[in-house]
Design brief:
By secondary structure, the chain is an alpha+beta fold. It has two domains: about 45 residues; about 140 residues. A five-stranded antiparallel sheet has the order 1-2-3-4-5. The radius of gyration is 24 Å and the shape is elongated. It starts with a helix and ends in a 7-residue tail after the last helix.
Length: about 200
């Protein structure tokens, strides 16, 4: 009988340990999920001006997943609203840079103006194109306030290509790719306003 008592005690302790671990996982899962969602929200929503929205944009996805544009691809998007009216859209875009895909987050207000953009992921050359991943990014900030037609289509290019914009030093291909992705997103917004801004009055 004493020989059985030791293994039985170990088995009981193992069961209790497993039970405690499972209970702890169940108890902490909602908090962990909430913290992960808060981190994601901060990462994706910091392009929107404070007070410009009062909803939870991540709970209002837009029907833009895997939309192929002229030079880039939309991965997904979200709608920001204030007092029930659309105030901005967030579009996650992917474009091919020099060393691989560049993933961008692009915020556009309800009038079609660029609120801001930032790089979510990239594999560009360190010290050159990889500077696109810096945040805040003064080069990307230079596009804020622009729209599909401001400047005109032909001006959405580098100065060396007879356009309006400077490039990141030593990163021509990266710069071209990002400019084309921003223009693609603004063009898509302009051409799909009714779908992107539901409930907004349109002429």
């Amino acid at each position: 009988m004493k020989q059985l008592r030791g293994p039985a005690l170990l088995l009981l302790l193992a069961i209790l340990g497993i039970g405690a671990t499972l209970w702890l996982q169940q108890a902490t899962a909602p908090r962990i999920e909430a913290e992960q969602r808060a981190l994601q929200a901060h990462r994706l929503l910091d392009l929107l001006p404070a007070g410009s929205y009062d909803n939870q944009p991540l709970d209002q996805p837009l029907p833009v997943a895997e939309v192929q544009l002229g030079n880039s691809r939309l991965l997904d998007g979200y709608l920001a609203t204030r007092a029930g009216q659309p105030s901005a859209v967030l579009l996650r875009s992917q474009v091919n840079g020099y060393a691989g895909p560049i993933e961008l987050l692009i915020a556009i207000d309800s009038h079609g103006r660029l609120l801001g953009s930032k790089t979510l992921s990239q594999d560009e050359t360190p010290g050159l194109g990889a500077r696109i991943g810096e945040h805040p990014n003064s080069w990307l900030q230079g596009f804020s306030g622009k729209s599909r037609n401001d400047p005109g289509d032909s001006a959405w290019a580098l100065k060396k290509d007879n356009g309006q914009f400077d490039q990141i030093a030593g990163a021509t291909i990266t710069s071209r790719a990002v400019i084309s992705a921003l223009h693609d997103a603004l063009r898509y917004f302009d051409e799909h306003r009714p779908q992107l801004l539901p409930g907004e009055p349109h002429e």
